Amino acid sequence: DIDDIGHKYHLELVLEDVLDKDSTVNCTAEVLYHLGNKNIAPDVQFTIEGELKNTDEADNVFYNQIKSLEKELVAENIPDSHGNVSPEMEPIHLLAWVASGYVIWQNSTENTKFQLAQIKHVKQVKRSDEYLEFDYMILLHEMVSQEIIPWQMTVLWHPQHGVQVTQDSRQPKHASE
Amino acid sequence: DQVLHIVPETFQQVQHLQHLCSTLLLDLWKPLLPEDIWAGEDLHIRVPAPLVEEVKDSLDQHMISYKVLIPDVQELVDQSMPRERSRHRRVPEGYVYTQYHPMEEIYQWMTQIQKSNSELVTQHYLGKTIENRTMYYLQISQPSDKTKKIIWMDCGIHAREWISPAFCQWFVKEILQNYKSDPKISRFLQNLDLYILPVLNIDGYIYSWEKDRLWRKNRSPHMNGTCYGTDLNRNFNSSWGNIGVSYNCNSEIFCGSGPESEPETRAVAQFIKRKKSDILCYLTIHSYGQYILTPYGSTTKPPSNSEELMHVAEKAAAALMGKYGTSYEVGPTSLILYSNSGSSRDWAHMIGIPFSYTFELRDTGTHGFVLPPDQIQPTCEETM
Hints:
The complex is a heterodimer.
Chain A: E1 6-17, E2 20-34, E3 43-49, H1 56-67, E4 74-78, H2 90-106, E5 114-125, E6 132-142, E7 148-158, E8 162-170
Antiparallel strand pairs in A: 1-2, 2-3, 4-5, 5-6, 6-7, 7-8
Chain B: E1 2-6, H1 11-24, E2 27-30, E3 43-47, H2 52-61, E4 66-70, H3 73-79, H4 103-116, E5 121-128, E6 134-140, E7 149-155, H5 163-178, H6 183-191, E8 192-197, H7 202-210, E9 221-222, E10 227-228, H8 263-275, E11 279-287, E12 291-294, H9 306-324, E13 329-332, H10 333-336, H11 344-350, E14 355-361, H12 376-383
């Protein structure tokens, strides 16, 4: 407890590579939830002990695949009802996961626990520069209320410049239907 | 059957190929007609399996080179078929336990299971859902002159938690396949009866297949049909309506218009109340999160037998982890998850059932409710 400011948590965690379960990296973090105004995202400071794997090759493969598409990519329901994700859609899925992490961070309080439940819809947006842009409609699952919350997010990605969420907005419950 | 790729080089070769196609009635994929075969142009012919050797010999004799484009046509056909459910609708010797099944198939499965295991299994009527569908449970009971204690397990109280009904079906299969050969299971059945309800929230489950994969509640109409669904796991008479619920139908944790307002809740509650003096253990299966939850959710006050409850749960979690290393957290819902009242597990304990647990199966959020079918087997094996 930090009087008049909020609650600070000190965390020791292990990061595990989703694509390679044996690859782990230790991490320490401090999270400060602000008292009062719940509209401010928690402050996060972290240190990663060691290095994250280099992903240049896979990044470039994905980048070139998308760049060489004749028509802008459009897809729905990732994963499908049975939990399957086609191999071509895996990077789109992973990108949504990372980007949703940002949205979740910005909207978390001590009383929420969000997970990405599903990508309802994704549409690539044509750009004149080197970036890839995707307009996602995702469904977030909030554990305490058990609610499924549709959320729109615009995601920019570039192999060297990483991920950016340039716009995001919570949608009314029926927006995904 | 194989598909051969040939590029004829001379007019003689073309003639021979045309001859072969018409006398053996081969299936021309490209071009469509023998008269359109030309030197220098691609030729694709499907050769039925019994004729493959003969055709290849003939091509060799005439010095016509070929490549095998498709070595096994049937394999390709099988691979391209939509998700195999049509091939395995036979039940249960053909029943695929590593896939998710719609309610129609689960009903058929129950009937089949009783038929093929009638010395052990009986199917019983439990009640009706709000949309008037019949709820059945399976009783697995070894004939004996002593009265046995009961273990009750229900699955699928929340529609979107598909791994849960999958587990109940798996569980039944495992018991029935191994009760003669596995000493643990046979000892079990000498002293205990198993009552399994594979899908509690039938209407919701069907809705999650047909309309909204992430639906949770049942399908009872409210506010003149402008809003649907009560959270059945907030609808039991255990501190009903107190905490961790919503009184608004639009919420996923809407507790209903009163305790046991829903026919599904009543069907389960009435039955358990009737049998409660014989019920040793109440299990309810959910996903996700990987927890074994003990009472209570409605209060942090520990239950009277909390030490024993924890001890058994901890042993279960350890055994579970022993299989694939999956870790489950153990403890009272109100302490390790969130507060909620009206849960079936709390209610079962409050009316006197000593061992009452909620299992939250895999995973911890990576796939959440939409767990891929390749995880059905490991999840069920470790939980078993």
